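Researcher: I'm preparing a figure for a lab meeting and need a structural model of a single chain. I don't have an experimental structure, so a prediction will have to do for now. The sequence is pasted below. Please return the structure as tokens so I can convert it later.
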Amino acid sequence: MYRTVSELRNHELSGAINWAVSNRAQLEGCEINLEFGLHELRFLQLIEQGQTSDALKYAREWFPRFAGTQESLGAAAVTGGNSGSSKDSVHLGEIQHLMGIFIYAKDLAQSPYADKFDPQRWEEGARGFASAFCTLLGLASESPLGVAVGAGARALPVVCKMSGLMRSRHVEWSAQDELAVEVALPDSMRFHSVFACPVSKEQATSANPPMMMPCGHVVCKLSLDRLARGVRPGAVASGRFKCPYCPSMSTLSDAKRVFF
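Model: Understood. Here is the structure written out token by token.
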């Protein structure tokens, strides 16, 4: 993997493409579109090198399986038509767009395709390959320790500032294992959606899922149960309770589970 990643960063694609073709079935089973991305990189590389005839030949050899059939690729290049099966046509729109690049081949920098030749594409391709490689092995593409340290480094200044403010005001955090403030993390450090109940401040789990009341506000199931048990004596018979965030009244049977 490291050897192939190094090759990608040096603009050498043959090793990555051969691996993607050899593992095509597994990649498609995991819904990983690595192979098409690598073929697109090679196609753009040939265009950038001025080898337009080789680029067209390459497109005719590799793109048809991602656009439907050989005939549908030709139709896409000429008429922009939409054909092929729904599975194979997932990249048809992208291929149609790529076919127009030949018109601008002599002046790519001033063309609508200029962003396609950003040097960063090679680093993104290398990261994509490493991620796909690790996924097939059931491993994380980035070091879990590195991610944890990176997230901690981002959070530390905010936490230190908040801790200083709380000390100066002689107050303490409400829970020992809970952060007093939200910590903004980049998308690369977000691995799954997380819902924290606004009432209990606890993270939702399969045993304590998020529940939406008719008014649209969402709390965890345990919080909903507590709200139902804590209704006013006069409202016990109806089982109705007030939403903690608006005047709307709800019942346990009205709440629906929410999936993130």
